[in-house]
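Why show two proteins at once? Because comparison is the fastest way to build intuition. When a single record is shown, students tend to memorize it. When two are placed side by side, the eye starts asking what differs. So, the first record is below.
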Amino acid sequence: MIKKYRKKPIIIYASQWSGDFDPFINDFSDYALYVSRRIKLKDKKLIIETLEGVMTADISDWIIIGVNGELYPCKDDIFKKTYDKVEEEK
């Protein structure tokens, strides 16, 4: 039987790929070395080593660091339906 489920409210880190590699990698600050070892640039696409294998990301896709430190791309329309921005506490 199919039942309804709600995604748990977890906080992830993400940055939207604009096509400019160095500032994009620097967006991840504390994760920059980790991310730079798993993401390569080829023809304006990001080639990402994920837990499921190699995936690509186009400009405007979001790159997410998941709850277990894994990387994966997400299309902009799906990202906007799934995530809300968390305001930093002051």
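Second record. Ask yourself what differs from the first in the token line.
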Amino acid sequence: MIGWWLLYTGALLILTLYMFLPDLLLHRLGLGSSKRQYSSGVALTFDDGPDPAYTPRILDVLAQYQVPATFFVVGEKVAKYPEIIQRIQAEGHQLGIHCHRHLHAWLLKPRETWKLWDEGVDTLERLTGQRVEWIRPPWGTFNLSLWYWTRWNKRRAVLWSVEGHDWLAIRSPRQIAERILRKTKPGTIIVLHDSGGEKGAPENTLQALTVLCQKIIHEQKLPIVPLEFPNWSFSRVLAIRLWEKWEWLFSHLYNVERINAHNLLRLSRTRYKGPFLYSKEGEILVKRGDWVGEIHFDNIRFLRKEADSHALGIQALREIRKSLSELAHYVAKKSDHDDITAFIGLTLINRGAKGLGFHIEEVPSTVFTRGIAILQRAILRIYHPTGKDRVMKERNSQPKLLWISKEEFLEKWVYQEKMRDLTKR
């Protein structure tokens, strides 16, 4: 009896170490794998292809909406349909490997695991001439051998944060899209399938993809972006995750809205609580209780890889000008912003604001403004590529009130632009 108990215990321990524990850590908890990406956008990924019946049609939809995607392809299908891989590559999409054969990791012995992953990577690299950086195991499942293979070969395991269960034929395009859209936010990795699954399922995926491209960009106002995994420290990743939670809560409490999928600014409609704001002639333009548009930076959209502060500043200014123009046109078309008297912002970043049409007002040092300064220094440290150095430059700065009347704002960013366009013609 004791012998059988020891045998069962030993078998369970082996199964736990080889299958259950690696899968729990990497697949379920995302420890040692990537289940999201760090940008302001959403990443589309496709598994199980290439497929001659569906992958080209998927590529047609992506081309129609001009959005990128990542295809995690099966090695034996790569060898069978090299022309599809070449098209994926030629159209600027990314490629990862989905093993050489579509087999569950728990069914593979250690040596077989290594052989299949080596073979899949070699097949794709020979065809594309590029190193395969990313892998995704079938069903997202791991065993101990695969975990060790990724570490030994320095490959990143990329999973997903949102799925539509589109491999099931009973999932309609509407159900697939709604399930995904409910959970989509900045940093989301979506998994869909361009092959495999039940008969007829890829047709539903194709229709759902069209809906997703439209609604993510135009309704959720999020860009669809390539996968990207910056080499950040754990502390920076943790700080960004915590700050994202705070920004999500803040935007919901104060109805902060995005302008479009790429704009660097967000807007909330609120009652003004500051000092009177005057025109050059001394006329009161804004008083307490007036409706104003409060402009907020969409901080995650300021994430940059460049460390050159000068180049970064030039690029940021160019994007801010474009964002202000889009914001002005957005406001001009929205009737629920008709009663806004001015646009304001309280910020440490105010150099160059006058050139953008804003007035700059000193504000008293209060608990509130000192708190704003602390928060904005934290934002700079998290999101600015030179983080700590930029914070040191701003350590003695105090927030200033930037403001512009609605009339001035529309004059500069709508009407003057129209006149310049007409002059150029």
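One difference worth noting in the second protein: The chain has two domains: 2-218, 234-424.
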